[in-house]
Design goal:
14 helices; binds 6-O-phosphoryl inosine monophosphate; 434 residues; Adenylosuccinate Synthetase, Chain A, domain 1; single chain; binds guanosine-5'-diphosphate; ten-stranded mixed beta sheet; Adenylosuccinate Synthetase, subunit A, domain 2; binds magnesium ion
């Protein structure tokens, strides 16, 4: 198999961008298959810092093709800003292809995202406000505007004339009475089509041919398995299938094309936005994790809620996505702690359970069952650790035991260990991957 998937196993922000960028070195093509600019993937390359929301993280490596698949929802204003960010660093986006079937985020999706959140009041999802949910809702309801529509004025005008009156009425009901300029919108969307139309193609055909001819394709997930629309903590989720199942639909390729699946697992847990989080901490440990881990949203800047590692959540991802290896990130953030807790099960109404229930009422009553593991000293203080020279065996023994514990409980080997933001702060235990 010549494909590799990188997906988030928790509630997002596990470090997928860093791991994708690291693995992209060996890939020919990097493809995003779901989500939109709700995602925020931070990649540090030497002194350069990139925050990508839509462009596949592989765009930073020379000579790689980048694909935005049909399952992604695209805000063209954001895409253009991001292209500018990448090109101003001296790189090119010549090798970017965009699916003609991807749905487009239009202004009214963003207005609706805000209006619907306000209508939900204190039961709000805490969305990123980027119009993601309303855009996916339109796709399912068959009112969406697709990338291909931006290339044909007649088709686009007809779509807008069908959709806009409905959006105006719905926004009105939700108390948002602003006017939407139909002609202005049409002109802007057509301009996007003219400007980026050269990148638009049938990416399913492109990928099929690429996989048939043995090209190495890296699938880059956004968000995390617990934010999956079907399998996450509904309704506190995003609006796409973040699990490995989303890859085939989101790129228009057969499910058998998905080979190795690397589940990115942060060494502790974070969550942005509302919703259940069983191992959440609200004490000095949480503050320490937030501070040392720089846990502020890449997209919205909101502080991320922090807590202990939850292996019930990790197992949920293993079952849903067929994780073959974990990439464990941010282990360095745990340096210097006396003891580290890991949740291995929950107690629910006097019973021990090892799966994540669908009912949020049950989730509210659940109490995490922890095992306590010894911490390790902070090598940063001594400044003596050098990955390039010393590698895995030189990691603190107790850190290696922490990784062993993850594998014992999940049956999934750790393939990649990340102990810093930079590409170089990565230990690869997988060897041959493709
Ligand atoms: P993503 O959405 O999964 O790509 O993750 P984000 O980019 O939103 O958040 C992860 C943050 O952690 C980014 O700022 C990364 O630069 C940083 N990061 C990734 N891996 C490591 C690591 O091993 N150690 C530390 N300290 N930071 C890391
Ligand atoms: P990456 O790819 C973390 C969360 C939002 C909110 C919920 C729904 O960087 O890991 P949406 O705007 O999608 O309708 O918001 O999902 N969320 C994320 N949390 N990382 C992300 O992406 C997220 N994308 C969406 O905070 O709780
Ligand atoms: Mg992120």
């Amino acid at each position: 198999m010549t494909t590799l998937a990188v997906i988030g196993t928790q509630w997002g922000d596990e470090g997928k961008g860093k791991i994708t960028d690291y693995l992209a070195e060996g890939a020919d093509i990097i493809a995003r298959y779901q989500g939109g600019n709700n995602a925020g993937h931070t990649i540090e390359v030497g002194d350069e810092v990139f925050k990508l929301h839509l462009l596949p993280s592989g765009i930073l490596r020379k000579g790689k093709m980048a694909v935005i698949g049909n399952g992604v929802v695209i805000d063209f204003d954001v895409l253009k800003e991001e292209i500018a960010q990448v090109t101003s660093s001296g790189r090119t986006v010549d090798d970017l292809v965009i699916s003609d079937r991807a749905n487009v985020i239009v202004d009214y999706h963003k207005f609706l995202d805000g209006a619907e959140e306000r209508a939900r009041g204190d039961r709000g999802v805490g969305t990123t406000g980027r119009g993601i949910g309303p855009c996916y809702a339109d796709k399912i309801a068959r009112y969406g505007i697709r990338v291909g529509d931006l290339l044909d004025e007649e088709v686009l005008a007809e779509r807008l004339d069908l959709v806009l009156p409905m959006k105006r009425r719905y926004l009105d009901v939700l108390g948002d009475h602003r006017a939407i300029d139909r002609d202005g919108l049409l002109t802007r969307l057509l301009a996007h089509g003219r400007e980026l139309g050269g990148h638009v193609t049938d990416t399913s055909v492109y990928l099929y041919d690429a996989i048939q001819t043995g090209k190495k394709v890296l699938f880059e997930g956004a968000q995390g398995n617990m934010l999956d629309i079907d399998h996450g903590t509904f309704p506190f989720v995003t609006s796409s299938n973040t699990t490995a199942g989303g890859i085939a639909n989101g790129l228009g390729i057969p499910p058998q094309s998905v080979g190795t699946v690397i589940g990115v697992l942060k060494a502790y847990t974070t969550r942005v936005g509302s919703g259940p989080f069983p191992t959440e901490l609200e004490d000095e440990t949480s503050e320490m994790l937030m501070r040392r881990g720089g846990e502020y949203g890449t997209t919205t800047g909101r502080p991320r809620r922090c807590g202990w590692l939850d292996l019930v959540v990790a197992m949920h991802a293993v079952r849903l996505s067929g994780i073959t290896h974990f990439a464990v990130t941010k282990l360095d953030v745990l340096n210097g702690m006396d003891a580290i807790k890991v949740c291995t099960a929950y107690e629910l109404d006097g019973r021990r359970i090892t799966h994540f229930p669908a009912s949020l009422k049950q989730v509210e009553r659940m109490v995490p069952i922890y095992e306590e593991l010894p911490g390790w000293s902070d090598w940063d203080e001594g400044g003596s650790f050098n990955i390039a020279q010393e590698g895995y065996d030189a990691l603190p023994a107790k850190m290696r035991s922490y990784l062993d514990f993850i594998t014992e409980h999940t049956g999934v080997p750790v393939g990649i260990v990340s102990i810093g933001k930079d590409r170089n702060e990565t230990i690869d235990l997988m060897g041959e991957k493709w």
